[in-house]
Amino acid sequence: MVGGGLLARELYRLPEAAPDAILAQSSTSRPLAQQPGPGTVELTPDAAAHPQNGTVRALLQTYFDSINNRDYELWKTAVTRERVQAKPKSTWLNDYRTTRDGSILVYRIDPISDEELRALVGFTSTQDIKDAPAELPEPCVHWRLVLPLTLESGAWKVDTVTGSTTPELSRC
Fold first, then answer.
1. Which of 34, 68, 75, 87 is positioned for an S-S bond with 30, CB 3.0–4.6 A?
2. Which domain of life is it from (predicted)?
3. Which of 86, 69, 15 lies closest to 45 in space, CA to CA?
């Protein structure tokens, strides 16, 4: 019985996080005036245990920084060619004109293949109501979604979100 307990402890122990991983602090709720929270991408211990945690965190930091800074050229470095083609600069600038993202937390990183990962990400977005998602026209929205990550020309990129994953949205 003791042997079984020791074996179970070893099997369910999370690997230690990489030294450069930014681990999430406590996820306390913020007052609406303090939303969306900091723009730093953080990782849960589960996400930090993934061998690609540093790469994923850096990629998503670039992705969210580009949105928060209205930097289309930076955004293009973080996404696949397909996403760039689907969202020309004028459309992108219009879509994100009032968006501010923060409280960004990567919950999990799951391998799909050697060239594909999926990152379960939560974040808070503030925007003018007219720029809010049609399904939740609010000035502050909490998002949870799976972002597909693809290896393209030797670099990880955020790929197009397919219809097979539905984001979870809630009011702040």
1. 34
2. Bacteria
3. 15
